[in-house]
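Lecture notes, continued. The same structure-token format from the folding unit now serves as the input rather than the output. Read the line below as a description of shape only.
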């Protein structure tokens, strides 16, 4: 995404992470953003979306009630905030925090998004952000989705979870 941004003449771009948990992903993104800046001169803004309280209550069967439980992946917010150098945490339920994210943050064009909300319902809400004005995105946005392939414990499929959210988004 940074190479694309550079080729298109951008000086900066953004990366989003949906589902921060302990923060290792954001810290890793910060490291790679510094290396990319040294290498090709693109500034990368990083935004991490999370409740801070772990997973919320599952909404219905599509959230894989048999696998995910409320409170999984609770964040130690003060500890993570102390470690982060540039990434910004957007705390709260994405259904709410996504509504004014663009007006509040005015991010550089988004070039990559990591989706790791685990739930169907949260992934649906996060995908709605892709309906924002195209000025907030590079022409191609690289998307990574966790929780799409797993063992017999997860039982991921096209009728529940993240895969259902992706299918519905693509159909729309």
């Amino acid at each position: 995404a940074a190479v694309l941004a550079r080729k298109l003449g951008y000086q900066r771009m953004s990366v989003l992470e949906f589902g921060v948990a302990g923060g290792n992903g954001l810290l890793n993104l910060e490291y790679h953003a510094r290396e990319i800046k040294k290498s090709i001169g693109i500034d990368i803004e990083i935004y991490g979306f999370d409740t801070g309280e772990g997973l919320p209550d599952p909404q219905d069967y599509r959230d894989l009630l048999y696998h995910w439980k409320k409170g999984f992946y609770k964040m130690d917010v003060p500890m993570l905030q102390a470690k982060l150098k540039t990434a910004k945490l957007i705390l709260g339920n994405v259904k709410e925090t996504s509504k004014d994210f663009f007006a509040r943050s005015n991010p550089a064009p988004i070039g990559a998004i990591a989706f790791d909300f685990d739930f169907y319902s949260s992934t649906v809400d996060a995908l709605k952000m892709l309906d924002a004005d195209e000025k907030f995105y590079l022409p191609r946005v690289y998307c990574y989705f966790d929780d799409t392939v797993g063992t017999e414990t997860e039982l991921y499929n096209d009728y529940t979870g993240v895969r259902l959210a992706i299918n519905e988004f693509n159909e729309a």
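Point for the exam: The mean pLDDT is 96.
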